[in-house]
Amino acid sequence: MGALGAWITLCGQAVDRQWNRGRAGDLLLYVNAQDPGSDEIGRVLAVQLRKVLRESRARVVHEPTAVRVASVMSAQHDNLAVIAYDIALEIYRGSPAFKVVKPVQLRVLVENYKYQVLCRADFKRDWAYLVTEALMKDAELLELKVPDRPVDTSRDNIPTHPGALAFLKGEPLGK
What pTM does this model have? Predict the structure, then answer.
């Protein structure tokens, strides 16, 4: 009986780690076409996501401007963006350049010295965990890290998504 219980538990954990977007389609990584660096990183990340989370069918989508990336992120809750730190912070704060979009409740999954992989605050916790886990499997490639920035009242930094924080702290998926 104990072996059966352990097997059921292990099977349940394996199922939890599967990517399942259902009818939502591909996981999209929006990049600013005016920033060749975000495109380059986006392509590498999409390859990594397709390798680890095959069912995600991750792909890069080029938007003509950062304002357009912000607009898409404000309207679509199940996708990601690869944006330079300074621009991401302006979007998050709703700076004058992004007044048309209003502040977007962004959260960081991973980042390096210049770019952040962002999602909206309402991005599913388990998806954030799985995406973060997948990207951190080859973190050295792009010098990625998961920042430890919980949500607070200041707008000095974009907070880390709770799913990414759970991965960082070694919590189990689905907790």
Answer: 0.86
